[in-house]
Amino acid sequence: MAIGHFINGEWIKQGTLSETVNPSNCSPVSVFHRGSLDLMKQAIAIARRCFETTNWRAQARRRAAMLLEYADNIAARAEIIAQMLTRENGKPITQSRHEVAAAVNECRYYAGLARNIFGRTAEYDTGQQSLFTREPIGVAAIIVPWNAPATLLIRSLAPALAAGCTAVIKPAAETSGTHHLLMQAIADCPSLEAGAVVSVNDGGLTVAEAMVADIDIDVISFTGSTNTGKAIMANASKTLKRLSLELGGKSPALVFADADLDNAAAEIANAVIPHCGQMCTAISRLIVHQDVAKDLTTRIIAILNDLVIGSAELESTQLGPLMTSVAANRYAENVALGAAEGEILLHGEVLSRADFATGHFVSPTIVQIENHSSCLVQEELFAPFVCVETFCGLDEAIASANATRYGLAASIYSCDLITAQAAARGLKAGTVWVNCHNRLMVEAETGGYRESGLGRLHGVEGLAPFLETKHIYTQF
């Protein structure tokens, strides 16, 4: 049965048909109706009408109840959603289960914050009073990527609804089946106002551009590539929309000579492989003190060589496939470029033996390359590909880490807290972990510096893009 669009509390089956494909074996998974300009305009108009004419934005307790219902509905479907997610984007099933559990946690956290949005008052002189209120901004557009379609939907949708906004969602085409299950879970929430959440399946660039440019959209929350983020920013500027953008990353790991190398090797190896490196915070640069560089890379290579590579649906799999054949071909080109520009320490390849013949499987690559201007250092490769650079002192390590335009996340490995804190302060990155990597939690804000994005997600600040501050002044 083909997947429709969720508009005004109903399923609309309209539009040409397309299908999602399993990157582990290239078999079809889901069939969905593609979006259109007319459907997108209809959905936006309904979300606007819901915001302007219903009590949704004024009913914090109702919105909190709805988010708790949504959390329970996702939890009840958790294994079904995780299995679909794994089939559609190739994320190993153990990682998909973790993602769905995180989405449930997001809903419950923002259900609590929905009832705790406070303003303030002030009196600056006799007979004067200022009241500052925090009000929902309006209609939020949420554009969801394929690499984490559960968590990256909910971490924008939950704060938008908690704030009192209505939401228009455009999911990624590649994970339409996963998104449909998440929309079924929201459709079954008794406290949801019809029209408060609408979703139109991917319909191509024209439909997405119309969504971004529509005057009835007040804020855009987007997770994806830096180039697409720049295009959204340009289109949104015509109507001065607020933006929340989490974009690309080139996350470095800085390892000092006094680090616990066993811990560093394990953490770094585990941070290279999530979703086959197709994660914006995955480690893609290793900046290591020259005295321990050989020892550390030897330990990391030993871990990566022992990985279980296979179908994402197998419980034992640690490294699943890349998303597409295009990504696999690009990976092979980057490995060849690494051999030309640096020294290959671990030679990854596109796997072609019989048991991998129908999927997009690769093995990890580590290249030592000291040229900061190389595209391998500067560009997000979205694959299990690590560039190794060496340093002598703290300042050099920080300068190397900051030598790209990205600034999403980084990690530092040292047994000296003073060194670790000095390095963390010097890094241009929104999140810095010490002696670990990828410790993401709903309570802690995340976001990027420079070309890694605008604004913050998670935490109390995650509400900020969806709220306006109003000053009401009274003269007595």
Describe this structure in a few short sentences.
With 476 residues, the chain is of the alpha/beta class. It is 37% helix and 21% strand.
Folded structure, characterized:
The protein has about 475 residues and is α/β, with parallel strands linked by helices. Helix content is about 35%, strand content about 20%. The protein is built from 14 helices and 20 strands. The strands form 5 sheets. Strands 14-15-16-13-12-17-18 form a 7-stranded mixed sheet, sandwiched between helices. A 6-stranded mixed sheet has the order 9-8-7-10-11-19, with helices on both faces. β17 (about 410-415), α14 (about 415-425) and β18 form a beta-alpha-beta unit. α3 (about 80-90) packs across α4 (about 95-115) and α13 runs parallel beside α14. The longest helix is centred in the first third of the chain and has 22 residues, at about 95-115. The N and C termini lie far apart (about 65 Å).
Strand order of the largest sheet: 14-15-16-13-12-17-18
Query: In percent, how much strand structure appears in the residues?
Result: 15-25%
Major sheet: 7 strands, mixed
Low-pLDDT residue intervals, each spanning 5 or more residues: none
Total count of helical runs of at least 4 residues: 14
Average pLDDT over all residues? 96
Shape by Cα distribution: globular
Q: How many E strands?
A: 20
Which percent bin holds the helix content?
25-40%
Structural class: alpha/beta
Q: Round the Cα radius of gyration to an integer and report it.
A: 23 Å
In whole angstroms, how far apart are the ends?
A: 64 Å
